[in-house]
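Thread: quick sanity check before group meeting

JM: Hey all, I'm pulling together slides for Thursday and realized we never actually wrote out the predicted structure for the chain we discussed last week. Dropping the sequence here so it's in one place. If anyone has concerns about the input, flag it before I start.
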Amino acid sequence: MAKNLEQEEIGGINIIAAGTTLTGDLISSGDCRIDGALKGNISSNSKIFIGKTGMIEGKIKCQSIEIEGEAKADITATEILSLKAASVLTGNIRVNKISIEPGANFIGNCVMQNSSAHAAPISTSTTIPGLEKE
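JM (edit): ok, ran it. Output follows.
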């Protein structure tokens, strides 16, 4: 219950439901859940969650992000990016930490940046398919 009250105080949870398409930029101080489609940029001081049916095309800036669906985006996350097994991410990322489950697809560049250190490129181009084709 305390988390719900705290969440309401910082801006609540924003939801783009499955079957909904939003074109434009979204700026929020609270969590965002995308189960529909967003064509534009999204900026949040909190967490972004892209559900299995969710799709974002644009730039993303947030504290942390978890992707189960699809993102064609350049992402900056001050904490962690988590790619779930069915996710597809195409774009460049700048994160503090990254978690990639087997089965996730990531095509792009990754820069790992510890909040207390300078950015250090991890790779120039990374493709991580979950399963190799036989």
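AS: nice. The chain has one domain: 2-127. The radius of gyration is 15 Å.
JM: adding both to the slides.
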